[in-house]
Design brief:
There is one protein chain. By secondary structure, the protein is an alpha+beta fold. The protein has one domain: Sandwich (Immunoglobulin-like). Helix content is 14%, strand content 35%. The protein contains one helix and nine strands; from the N terminus they run αβββββββββ. The strands form two sheets. Strands 2, 4, 5, 6, 8 and 9 form a six-stranded mixed β-sheet that branches. Strands 1-3-7 form a three-stranded antiparallel β-sheet, with no helix packed on it. The longest helix is centred in the first third of the chain and has 19 residues. The N terminus is likely disordered.
Length: 136
């Protein structure tokens, strides 16, 4: 009986967590315009963000079908869903669509993930493909 109660509590917590996420529009897609995958670049470099199927709005803006970019650099995976993204991503809460980034020489990965007004990833998650670059 206790096992069944605990299973129900875990299920209800998961449902509540998913319900807290902002829905993303069908077909929404984040992508990195530049640099392109496989590029050899100098530091600092400009990273230009792309977004299709939804709009960009600053953090704290409660408007349907919008969000703001977060950049993962050399990440081992995506941030946890259902909670605000933390220091493991670079936040662009002002609605920025590009940034200048200083990176050490070597290979690096870049990936975008959209966050809602409270920096929580949308459901389903709107994330770009990973771009691998080499800084000379």
């Amino acid at each position: 009986m206790l096992k069944k109660i605990l299973s129900m509590a875990v299920l209800m917590a998961a449902v509540g967590q998913a319900a807290a996420q902002t829905a993303s529009p069908a077909g929404a897609m984040a992508y990195i315009i530049s640099p392109v995958d496989g590029a050899v670049v100098s530091s600092p470099l400009t990273v230009t963000f792309g977004l299709k199927g939804m709009g960009v709005a600053p953090a704290g803006t409660d408007r349907a079908n919008t969000g703001h970019h977060h950049l993962l650099v050399d990440a081992k995976g995506l941030p946890a869903v259902g909670q605000p993204m933390g220091a493991d991503v670079i936040h662009f809460g002002g609605g920025q669509t590009e940034t200048s980034l200083a990176l050490a020489p070597g290979k690096h990965t870049l990936q975008l993930i959209m966050g809602d007004m409270g920096h929580v990833p949308h459901h389903p998650v709107v994330v770009s493909k990973v771009v691998t670059i080499t800084v000379k």
